[in-house]
Task: structure prediction
Amino acid sequence: MRKRENIILKTIKDKGLKITPQRQLIGEVLDGNKTHPSAEDVHKKVSEIAPTVSIATVYKTLNSLADLGVIQRLDVGDGKTHFDPDITAHSHFVCLNCRKIFDVATSVPLPDLGKDFKVVRAQAVYYGYCKECQDQTEE
Ligand SMILES: [Zn+2]
Ligand SMILES: [Zn+2]
Result:
């Protein structure tokens, strides 16, 4: 029996927002997802449950949830926008070979940029080779 609370749907409720059918779908597909999927990836998963939902709808819903702070948008420089249901401060590691994006626990200290800029959040993206890809090249 798996009865874990869906964090995305909980956050939507906690923020006093409406759970629309689209949000419900995205919540189901993205909750607990650690792979940092792009909108295309999310759409693929959504299609398995709801084949009539368009990529445009998925895009719009993901971006509005990101704007509302329910999920976070992630740009790692590969030309795609990725989405992360984990909105706590954490950094990412991008493998230059398999292009997978991993969560890393390093926290980036907030710099003091003077009174003109109040820093509230910082996260880093590290690039390199993941364990699996390192093992491949060593053989
Ligand atoms: Zn890799
Ligand atoms: Zn992440």
About this structure: The first helix runs from residue 7 to 14. Residues 36, 84, 86, 90, 92, 103 surround zinc ion (ligand 2) (CB under 6 Å).
